[in-house]
Design brief:
With 575 residues, the chain is α/β, with parallel strands linked by helices. The chain has four domains: 5-220, no CATH class; 249-321, no CATH class; 328-432, no CATH class; 443-571, no CATH class. Helices cover 57% and strands 9% of the residues. The chain contains 26 helices and ten strands. The chain has helices at 12-17, 35-46, 81-100, 104-115, 133-144, 149-156, 164-186, 190-204, 215-227, 234-245, 250-264, 269-278, 289-296, 300-321, 333-349, 355-367, 372-392, 398-414, 419-427, 434-442, 449-463, 503-506, 517-523, 528-535, 541-544, 554-571; strands at residues 5-11, 21-23, 56-67, 73-79, 116-118, 125-127, 129-130, 205-212, 478-481, 512-515. A six-stranded mixed β-sheet has the order 1-8-3-4-2-7. The chain has a two-stranded antiparallel ribbon with strand order 5-6. A two-stranded antiparallel sheet has the order 9-10. Strand 3 (56-67) and strand 4 form a beta hairpin. Helix 2 (35-46) packs parallel to helix 7. The model is unreliable at 226-232 (pLDDT under 50).
């Protein structure tokens, strides 16, 4: 390892207490941990509270050290800011409890050792943790300076649950609650619990502290650690790399990256980065993305061009996940209706592989808006292909990757959106024929309600001329299992008809229909005679059809699913 990179094993408490200031630079990502992550952090920490001396290892964190004119020791956080910020929130919540119990001396000790630091610019006391611009005010005003819990709760109101500052405040409220519960769980006083927390942080929670001389050393380090299986945040390393190369245009580069993050909102940035790369015709695993990026982006000009490409594509990526996205409003009415139906379909199906091709297609659509109808047809074709290949036939996604990447490269190169030509050239060899599709559909089972709702609603819509819009809104319909998931005793009367038991039929598509959620809850696991009466009065034709059966046995389920398969083969068809 280069001499400009060094590492040591330290405890989390010692790292915090011996550093005057931690700085999260502007280009680092915002606080992003949700309850799953910070709950795991607490659970891991709590395992070290007993007297057995249990220790935990929380991974590697990367810092760039510096000293200010005042002599303050500052660490710029390259990787590890999520767990470091969470530790600061935990300590702040503990301090809040101590102050509320008038344990001011112990509260002051925690503040002095872990929370208050030295402003590297002025040498004056200040917050030890200096978060980026998106998080700094919320952290300083409500966590470091310690607002009352009701104020924290009020501040969280009105913010989207995925909002970065809502996540900060939620973490504080979670830690505050856990500390209160832990006192009762361990049967100890608050002072004793505080001693357990501090002992764990100072002696039992270890990490690898990696120190780098500059940002470029961090990129070299990333590759070294990846080879040894110590995974760092590739997202952060890539972001740092691009913004470092673009440093002559730092403000513009940062603004572009912020736009990318804002466009993506709650979507996975790392998934987007890989799909954007593959949409340029280059198949790559996510773990090798940074390596490829370094080969292709080597200077400031390359970095800005790539960032601008990400900016455009991130808006497209967000639109493909959201039928309400403003981007779609510029399409002609018919194309817009068709596209929005496909966006909803992809969302219900949980389909991500087609996005590779669609990102390339949207670049072409931007350059040639007159191709909106072709784009809408291409999306519809991809929905049908996805239903056949992935949803119903469950064929290997790995076989699709190369074809989607080649199709994306073709679309970018030729600016061609003709759906039939693209299908014949790239997807036809993998397309399940009618016989294969029908056979798979007739036996399909699924526990994914979103997929089942989409499939059944689409079949219902194909039955009725009056029903033009898919019945996909969760508040309007829900799946009803005709043979219930938890059959009541009434169903025991037909138990002998199900030779292998109920389980093999409950999740068959032929055993499902759609109802309004309220009606669905009312009939619950009632017997078929009672359900049949309700079905006969339902607004949806596909549900009224069930009422024509006099009983509900494997024979009726098979017949219904056979009928559904015959309808499905016409609905989801590619040219």
């Amino acid at each position: 390892m280069p001499r400009s990179i060094s590492c040591e094993v330290v405890t989390l408490g010692r790292l915090i207490s011996t550093t005057d200031s931690f700085l999260v630079p502007p280009f680092q990502r915002n606080y992003a941990w949700g309850e799953k992550q910070y709950s795991a952090f607490w659970d891991d920490l709590a395992r070290t509270f007993d007297d057995a001396g249990n220790e935990i290892f929380i991974g590697a964190s990367v810092f760039r050290p510096s000293s200010s004119a005042s002599g303050a020791r500052q660490l710029t956080v390259i990787d590890g800011q999520q767990r470091l910020t969470t530790a600061a929130i935990l300590l702040s919540a503990l301090r809040h409890h101590l102050r509320a119990r008038n344990l001011h001396e112990l509260a002051a000790r925690i503040e002095d050792e872990f929370l208050r630091g030295v402003d590297p610019g002025t040498g004056q006391p200040g917050a030890r943790f200096n978060l980026n611009v998106a998080n700094k005010n919320t952290f300083d005003d409500h966590i470091y300076k310690l607002s009352e819990i009701r104020v924290v709760h009020e501040q969280k109101k009105g913010k989207r649950s995925s909002n970065t500052n809502a996540l900060l405040l939620s973490c504080f409220m979670f830690m505050h609650k856990k500390i209160g519960l832990a006192r009762r769980l361990y049967g100890c006083t608050l002072e004793e619990l505080a001693a357990k927390v501090l002992r764990s942080l100072n002696d039992r929670v270890t990490l690898i502290h990696i120190s780098v001389a500059d940002d470029l050393n961090a990129f070299a380090l990333f590759e070294t650690l990846n080879e040894r299986g110590l995974e760092l945040s590739q997202f952060d390393i890539m972001k740092n790399y691009l913004l470092t190369l673009a440093r002559p245009n730092a403000a513009r580069a940062l603004a572009t990256w912020v736009t990318v993050e804002n466009n993506l909102r709650s979507a996975s940035v790392s998934a987007f980065l890989r799909q954007h790369w593959v949409s340029r015709g280059k198949i790559i695993e996510e773990k090798h993305l940074f390596e490829e990026l370094k080969r292709a982006v080597t200077d400031g000009r390359d970095a800005m061009l790539y960032l601008e490409s990400l900016e455009r594509s991130s808006a497209h990526y967000a639109a493909l996940h959201d039928p309400e996205y403003a981007y779609w409003r510029k399409l002609p009415d018919q194309a817009q209706r068709d596209v929005l139906g496909s966006v909803r379909a992809f969302r219900s199906l949980g389909a991500t592989q087609p996005l590779v091709m669609l990102l390339a297609a949207l670049e072409t659509l931007d350059a040639a808006p007159e191709k909106a109808a072709e784009f809408a047809q291409l999306m519809r074709l991809l929905v049908s292909f996805t239903v056949r290949y992935t949803t119903i036939c469950s064929l290997p996604p790995s076989r699709l990757a190369a074809n989607y990447a080649k199709a994306a490269a073709f679309i970018r190169r030729e600016q061609d959106l003709q759906p039939e030509a693209i299908f014949v050239k790239f997807l036809a060899p993998l397309y399940p024929d009618d016989e294969t599709f029908v056979a798979a559909f007739r036996n399909k089972q699924s526990q994914d309600n979103a997929i089942c709702r989409y499939l059944i609603a689409s079949i219902n819509d194909s039955m009725s001329i009056a029903s033009r819009e898919p019945s996909l809104a969760p508040e309007l319909t829900s799946i009803d299992h005709i043979l219930p998931q938890n059959p009541s005793v009434v169903w025991l009367q037909v138990r002998r008809q199900f030779r292998d038991g109920f389980r093999g039929y409950i999740y068959r598509l032929g055993n499902m229909t759609l109802m309004a959620p309220g009606e669905n809850q009312k009939i619950g696991n009632a017997g078929f005679d009672e359900k049949r009466t309700v079905y006969s009065q339902d607004a949806l034709e596909i549900t009224r059809l069930v009422a024509k059966s006099e009983k509900w046995t494997p024979k009726e389920i098979d017949q219904r699913q056979k009928w559904m398969a015959a309808a499905a083969v016409q609905i989801w068809r590619c040219p």
